[in-house]
Structures are given as C-alpha cells and as structure tokens.
Design brief:
The structure holds 2 protein chains of 2 kinds. By secondary structure, chain A is α+β, with helices and mostly antiparallel strands. Chain A folds into 2 domains: 194 residues, no CATH class; 143 residues. Chain A is built from 16 helices and 7 strands. Chain A has a 7-stranded antiparallel β-sheet with strand order 1-3-4-5-6-7-2, with helices on both faces. In chain A, helix 14 packs parallel to helix 16. The longest helix of chain B has 22 residues. The N terminus of chain B is likely disordered. Classes of the chains: A alpha+beta, B alpha+beta. At the A-B interface, helix 11, helix 13 and helix 15 of A face strand 28 of B.
Chain lengths: 348, 598
C-alpha cells in the first residue's frame, strides 16, 4: 500500500514548479510555521531510494529561485496487530537536511493505539522526539523496541541499548511508539543525504555568502568548508564574511576559525587593527585563543603596544601568554617599558 | 599556647577568634565560619583537607545574600592592619565573587574576590582605628555568585604579612585559635563510624541495634550524603533481590521515596527524618558538623580520631575499639596508612575486559545538581562572562540537572581539587543558565533557578584495599564466596565525558555519558568491607575494596547502605570475641552469616 501510494505521489507531483505549502491546506498544530522563511514556489524531486521506496521531496524557493528549505507530504501506514492506521504528516528540513518542524494536512490528526487523538502535549512531545538527531531510536529496530503485535515497550529494550527503560520512555510517546519510531526514521533517514546532494547542486558564491552570514552554525560550517582550504587559506572575496563570523556571538565557530585560519589572515597593519578591535570585544576564552594564535604571527608595532597596555590588568594566564608574545616581538621601546613596569609591579 | 602569654583572651557567643600579644603585637584572628550570624552565607568544609579550614561562601545563585555578622572583642584600642583571606574563584579574567568587609559599620576600601588570582591568599584590607573594643564585623556580598572568605586577621604590627604557605598557616591558625591544646573528649565507643552518608548512617544504626555503643560523625549539618537535600541524588540499587533478605531493612528506613535527581523541593529528601531515626537509637551518639582530620594509631590499630567543628573549630577526640571509614574519600584509611587505590587499574593488572589499557588517575566525576522552577513573572539573570560560554551551536537545553552534570574524569583530582571541581560545575551551570535566560526567553523567561548544590556529590575517590578486591569477573560470573553478604544489582555504570561535550570543552568537560553493562544480582563478600592492613578498620560505601570497574556497580547508595548494615553486624561479632574484622572472617564467619540469615 505504501509503495502504491508513493508511486501515485510521484506521478501526481512530478511537475517542477508549484506553490509552497499553504496555510489553508496545512494545520500548523504547533504554531511554529515561523521557524521557516516564507516561500514563493517549490521544486519537486522524485527520490528513488530502492525498488520499493520512491517518494517526492519538495524544495521550497523564494521569489528569486533561491533554495529555502525542504519538505515532504507524507502518508504512511503504521501497522500493528495486523491492522494499519494511516498517518498523514508534512515534515520540514533545512537545506542540510536538519529536521525543523512538522505540520498536518488540514482535517488530519495523529492518533494513538487506542484511536484516541494526540493531545497538545503529545504533539509537542513528537516535535521534541523528531528534533533529536542522536536519539536512541536510531540504534534500534522496531522489533527491539516493542512487544511484537503491540505498542508495548519490550522489557528487553534496556538490555539491547544499555539505556534504562526510563530513558527510553522519555524518547517515545506511550501508545504511539510505532508512530514515533517510523516518523523519526523518516525525518533522519536517507532523505538527509538526498537533501545534501540536492543542495550541493545549488552551491554558488551567492549561496556561500548567504550561508556564512546566516547565523546558522550548520550552514556556516558547510560554507566554511568550501571557502577555507586545509591550510586555512580563505577564498578571496570571503574575508569579510569570515571576520563577521569571528565577531559574532557564536564562540565555537569563532574558535574554530581563529585556530584554523592561515597566519596571513592576521598579518599586516589593517588585519591587526581589526584583530585588536575583535580582541577588545571578545569573550575571555576567545581572547586566550587569539593570544595563543598570535604566537605564529608577526606582531606589528601597533598591536604590540595595545597588548602591552593590557599587561597591567591581566590575570596569570593572560599575562603568561602576553609576556611570551611581547618578549618575542621586535624591539619596541614602548613595549619594553611596559614589560619593565610589569616586572616591577610583580615584585611589589 | 599558655594562658600567661595571652592578653585579653576573650570569646563571645561561641565565636572562634583569638587575640594575643606577641612581642607587644596585638592580634585578632577570626574564622568567618564562626561568625555568630551567617546571613545568607554558607559554610563550606569540602576543601578542609587542602586548606586546613572551612570557609564562608555567598551562594546566592546570582542574587546577593544577606550579610554575615559577628562581634569580636579586641585586646586593645588602636590602629590595626586588616588582612582578608580570600580568592578569586573564577579568574576569567576577573571573577564574580565580590564582597566587602565592614568593621564597626565602616567599609574597608578594597573590594575582595576579584583579584584574578585563584589561589587562597591574604589580601591587605587597609588600616582601621579601633576606638571601642567591641568590634562588629560583617561580610557584605555584592553579587550572589559564590564570593568566599576564609578568615580575617587584625594586627597592630604594620609590616607583618600573615603566612600563605599551608604548613605555616596551619601552625599560625593553631597558635591563634586554640585556647587549649586538649580537644574535647568525645567519648569511648565500641564502633566509631566516620561519615554520615547512607552507608555510614546504616552502619551506625546497625551497630547500635546490635548493642554496640556507636559514634556517628558527619561533616555536614545533615545526614544522607549524596541523598541529602544538599546534594539530592536518589537512591539506587535494588533491595528486593537479596540473597539475605534481612539486609536492606535500615536502608528502607532511610528511603524517603524517589524524588529523582535534583528535585527542587529539598523536603523530598527527608533530612529531618534521617536525623530522627538516628536520634531514636539510644546507643548511638550523633556528631554533626564535625570534620575528622586526624587519626591516632597504636601499631596497626586506630585508637582515636579527632574531628573539628566546621563552625566553631572546636576539636573533639573519639576513642574506639573499631572504626568504620564511611567517608567516601577513604579519609580515615588514608590518614591511618591503609592501602588504597585511586583511579583505574589496567587490563593486564586485573584481567578485566572493561579495565583501561594503562593504569591512570581517571575517576568518575562529581555532580553539582541544580533545578529551576516556573514562576509567575519574567525574571532576569545576569551575563556571566567569567563562566563557561555557550551559543546556539552548543548549550544544554534543560530546565534542571540530572546525573549527566558531572566534572572530574581525570581532569581534576576528586579530593585535592574538590573546590575546583565544584567551581567548574558552577561555571557550567551559571554560564549555561545565563545563555538560556538571555537567548531563549520563549522557554526560559519565567523559569528561575530554585536550587544549585554548593556541596559536590562525589562518585569516586579512594578505594581502601581489603582482604579481597572485588572485580568485574566476580560480578559477571556471579561468584558466591562463603562470605558473600551484600547483594548488588546496579549495572556496571562507568561514566565518561559526553563526546559532544568533549568536542566543545576538551579537557574541561562537565557533562557525562555512560554505558550500562547489565549484571545479574551478585553478592559482595564481607572481605571487601575491612582494611587489609589496618586491623580494626571497616569500610562501607563507595570506598570499599573493589577495582575501578567493579566500583562502577557497587557504588550506588542502597547497596552502600547494606554494606553499612553488614559492618554493624560484623563489629558486634568482633566485639563479642574481642576479635578483629579479619578475625570475624577467619574464626567467626558462620556466626556473622547466621546474623544475616536470621
């Protein structure tokens, strides 16, 4: 039945362009539509996974035809005790296949084993479950999880996974274990690779700039891998994007770039002016990363003077790094005086 | 110290301060933990072993706490130099633990706790003019973020700097603080149990019910240890699968239901109930707030232990026939020279498949649990630049802590770095909470931190070596030794740093993962419950004689409590025959096992 339906869906939606999912056809059960940007049109991709699995994957686009996000209109039967119940749901992913949200076709609801419809808390729980990429469900077969022919959790689940039963219960909705399992695997299965493959075909300077400035770490790392080579050299034209990321609130990606980028990125008067400005605004851990990185960078006089000025108020860790840098810096009377002052201060 | 060398030695309201004249120098030494009114400051004794003292800390979860206040009588009027012993606990680059000190309503000029130096040191507080010998002192917290102060010292000698190195400082404290070299007499006991966690409390009750005169000495104001409201870990390990169903009865009494880990309601952990149960035992003498730091021996026997009151600093000495080390850290065994292990053994040493390839100092970590609650209105939480920094890319999206909030893992020593570990946990908790409050208002605007533990819940430290060292094979093969006593059921649960947490905080992990290796119920032999080389020392709790791997299963609190119950029975048998813990195994095992069977 699933196979037949997938085939029908392919035929139905093979048209390349059409409208995005619209509010009048979807039921935004969690009211989280704003997690995604507004789309103008869509492109449909027929995915042939294997002989029995074919489906359509939709890519939402903006007015300029730029890719925004993916989605799938899903109908899947969830079967237990020989009886199948239909599940209608729409799943949405970002451009790298990270699950974002779901909604339902208008008029549809999700149900539990006892045919009772989901309560608001169940819908929220489902979103929580689907949002976890490293869920316990990933390791399990459905036959590991439930007593065959029922939706009851198997007693031996914890033995198989090493997790406690309590932990597993946290990752499923009682009475809808099969539904959770099926949908999680749909959200995190092979479709993710398909989406990444398609997004690669959209790779362009424009997309890279967009990703780098998106504030979305996944997009940023994806683009970074394309504009920074193994030696840390930045593709010309992307330096500003990189500096902006370093100055952003995401300390982790800033740290990654600060550590990986080629020393040339910090070399020269202009670069070091920017670096000093960055240093003054950076969090403490980021400041330490910069100080450690400067060990491999020729220090210009101006930056050396600025750093020497910070010595008097530095804590032990900062002072150790600063002293190593400043002592190795080329002769500079101002710096020498500051180093001398610092030594006197330490002996007081 | 002799009385005739003391000028105007005065003590007020159990205040531990001392004044004396040495070479015409007037001095006043005030331990902050002895302040008459603590306000919102709390006593922390967790680093006694490395500091030689407890201290006061302003644990306000980001809201300044009330002043700690006391009154001291000075030996004479005049000008005094003030010294304040403190540290900057989070010098990244300057910590948040800021406080001021007021002497007779006049605030000293420096702000303390933000020096950028994480070493405990004396800081110059300037000069004060004492015009009235009754002097009111207060500590005024500025942030609620764990400012701390060990002691205040006043001297008329302008050029004297009090010592900072530990041995000299300890001697200095002793000289200035103690009115007598003789500690209080805590009494003579059949069994002295040190450590009032679940294991120690059960050991003491068990011994007392067997007719022994028992002292139970605990270094906190509450019993229960990791299961107390100060730490809030729930009890684990089953008591319904016992080979000897008699064991677990006292554990059951201690059990206050299962509120989970880190429940925001302190009452759920039943501190008062536990104390009532102990106090109901007529043979049992409870000494709370007493940190045991000294052991006296006669050859291979312990004859006495001395504990110091964590507030008044009064010493008390306890003598006994038998001692039980239920400290968790194996403190008594360590002080007595008992053989012990700490860290992981290697595969080649133990033959355990789960052992490390090479021996190392890795231990499971320490948790400082926390919880938030939903409140009626939006609340704020400050930025915490001195804490760990988080972003959308990585943070822990949680309303409360569970066991995973854990620091240690060989990055820190669970005993000597206990303060650093707790502080590391606090920097993770506050940094993450600040991120959640300020960056995810949709979920966290009305959540408020209700509780953050300032006492660390330790999992692993020293393991005292007994006549048998339980290992993984004993557990997995379910070996039933003739002295098999306590049935254990918990998985081999050896935590490690969560890989994602490691990726973001390599070497500074604060979040754990685990792999539960299931075991069938097995039985811990009695020989794991007494020291191999200290002839009258029992152990119960996490510091019994096991390998690191086996400890992964024996360490949970119901199981530890049952070890305590067995120690109580064994001590009674030992006393009856004037024997030793080993003598009970060698000569009276059938009697001990009969006690368990009855």
């Amino acid at each position: 039945m699933k196979c037949l339906f997938a085939g029908l869906l392919m035929l139905y939606s093979y048209a390349v362009h059409g409208g995005p999912p619209r509010a009048d056809t979807t039921y935004d059960v969690l009211r989280n539509q704003s997690l995604l940007p507004e789309a103008d049109r869509r492109q449909t991709f027929a995915i042939h996974e294997n002989d029995s699995t074919n489906y359509s994957l939709q890519l939402a686009l903006d007015k300029e035809g730029r890719p925004l996000y993916y989605y799938r209109n899903i109908f899947t039967p969830v079967c237990y005790t020989g009886e199948c119940k239909p599940v209608f749901i729409n799943l949405y992913w970002d451009l790298l296949g990270n699950y974002i949200r779901y909604d339902l076709p208008v008029g549809e609801a999700l149900t539990k084993l006892d045919h009772k419809t989901f309560k608001p808390a169940d819908y929220e729980k489902l979103q929580e479950i689907l949002s976890k990429s490293d869920c316990l469900l990933a390791e399990l077969k459905i036959t590991d999880l439930i007593v065959p022919g029922t939706e009851k959790l198997a007693d031996s689940v914890d033995a198989r996974t090493g997790a406690t039963l309590k932990t597993i219960k946290n990752e499923v909705i009682p009475g809808a274990v099969y539904t959770c399992y099926t949908l999680w695997h749909m959200a995190h299965g092979n479709v993710v690779d398909e989406m990444n493959r398609i997004t690669e075909t959209y790779n362009s300077k424009q997309l890279l700039h967009r990703f780098l400035s998106s504030g979305n770490p996944d997009y940023q790392y994806w683009a970074l891998a394309k504009v920074m080579d193994k030696k840390g050299m930045i593709t010309p034209g992307f330096e500003t994007d990189i500096r902006d990321i370093i100055n952003s609130k995401n300390i982790f990606i800033a740290r990654y770039i600060l550590q990986q980028v080629d020393a040339g990125f910090y070399t020269g008067k202009k670069a070091q002016r920017w670096l000093w400005d960055t240093f003054t605004r950076a969090s403490y851990p980021a400041q330490l990363i910069i100080l450690r990185r400067l060990k491999y960078v020729p220090l210009q006089g101006e930056l050396a003077r600025h750093l020497a000025d910070t010595l008097a108020n530095a804590n032990g860790e900062q002072a150790g790094l600063l002293l190593a840098l400043l002592k190795a810096a080329p002769g500079n009377n101002y710096v020498k005086k500051k180093l001398h002052d610092y030594e006197i201060q330490q002996h007081q | 110290m002799k009385y005739n060398s003391i000028n105007n030695l005065l003590r007020i309201m159990l205040l531990c301060c001392a004044t004396l004249t040495l070479h015409a120098q007037q001095q006043v030494f005030v331990e902050t933990e002895s302040f008459a009114r603590k306000g919102g400051w709390v006593i922390d004794q967790q680093s006694f072993t490395v500091m030689g003292s407890s201290y006061l800390m302003a644990h306000g979860m980001g809201r300044p706490v009330g002043d700690a206040v006391t009154t001291v009588e000075f030996p004479a009027k005049g000008k005094y130099q003030v010294w304040v012993r403190t540290k900057d606990w989070a010098p990244f680059p300057k910590g948040p633990g800021k406080f001021t000190v007021t002497v007779n309503e006049k605030q000293l000029t420096p702000v303390f706790g933000e020096s950028g130096n994480d070493q405990w040191k004396w800081y110059d507080g300037g000069e004060v003019n004492i015009t009235d010998q009754q002097v009111k002192l207060s500590l005024h917290d500025l942030t609620g973020f764990n400012g701390r102060c060990d002691a205040l010292y006043f001297t008329t000698a302008a050029k004297f700097t009090p010592p900072n190195d530990l041995p000299t400082l300890s001697a200095f404290r002793r000289k200035l603080l103690h009115t007598t070299e003789q500690p209080n007499d805590g009494g003579q006991y059949d069994l002295v149990v040190v450590g009032g966690g679940i294991a120690g409390t059960c050991a003491a009750i068990s011994g007392a019910r067997m007719g022994l005169k028992v002292a139970l000495i605990q270094d906190r104001p509450v019993l229960g240890g990791n299961n107390s409201s100060e730490i809030r870990v729930h009890l684990k390990g089953d008591i319904d699968k016992n080979y000897y169903p008699k064991l677990g009865r006292i554990v059951r009494e201690m059990d206050n239901g299962d509120p989970g880990n880190g429940n925001p309601d302190a009452g759920e952990y039943g501190d008062a109930r536990k104390i009532e149960i102990v106090k109901a035992e007529k043979n049992l003498h409870l000494f709370l707030n007493t940190y045991v730091y000294k052991v006296e021996k006669d050859n291979d026997r312990i004859i006495a232990v001395t504990g110091r009151d964590i507030a008044t600093n009064q010493d008390t000495r306890f003598t006994g026939a038998y001692f039980s080390d239920c400290t968790g850290d194996g403190t008594i065994g360590y002080l007595a020279g008992a053989e012990f292990r700490m860290g992981r053994e290697s595969k080649s040493e133990t033959g355990e498949s789960l052992a490390a390839e090479k021996p190392d100092s890795f231990t499971l970590g320490t948790s400082n649990l926390w919880a938030s609650v939903l409140v009626d209105s939006v609340t704020t939480f400050p930025a915490t630049p001195w804490a760990m920094q988080f972003s959308d890319e990585y943070h822990i999206d949680a309303l409360k802590a569970d066991w995973e909030w854990e620091t240690g893992f060989g990055n820190f020593n669970t005993i000597t770095d206990a303060e650093k570990i707790r502080d590391h946990n606090l920097r993770a908790i506050y940094g993450n909470w600040s991120y959640l409050k300020n960056s995810k208002p949709e979920k966290y605007a009305r959540q408020q931190l209700a509780w953050v533990a300032y006492i660390g819940g330790k999992r692993e430290s020293r393991r005292i070596i007994g006549d048998l060292v339980l290992n993984q094979m004993d557990i997995q093969e379910g070996k039933m030794y003739p002295d098999g006593a306590v049935t254990a059921t918990w998985t081999i649960d050896l935590h490690f740093p969560d890989p994602k947490n490691s990726r973001y905080f390599e070497g500074q992990e604060f979040f754990a993962g685990t792999k539960h290796i299931r075991v069938a119920p097995y039985t811990i032999p009695y020989r794991c419950l007494y020291s191999h080389n200290i002839s009258n020392l029992f152990m119960a709790g996490r510091n019994i004689s096991t390998t690191h791997v086996a400890f992964g299963s024996t360490r949970v609190m119901r199981t530890c409590g049952m070890m305590g119950e067995v120690v109580g029975f064994a001590a009674a048998v030992a006393k009856k025959y004037h024997s030793s813990p080993r003598g009970v195994y060698q000569d009276h095992l059938p009697e001990l096992m009969n006690l368990l069977k009855e």
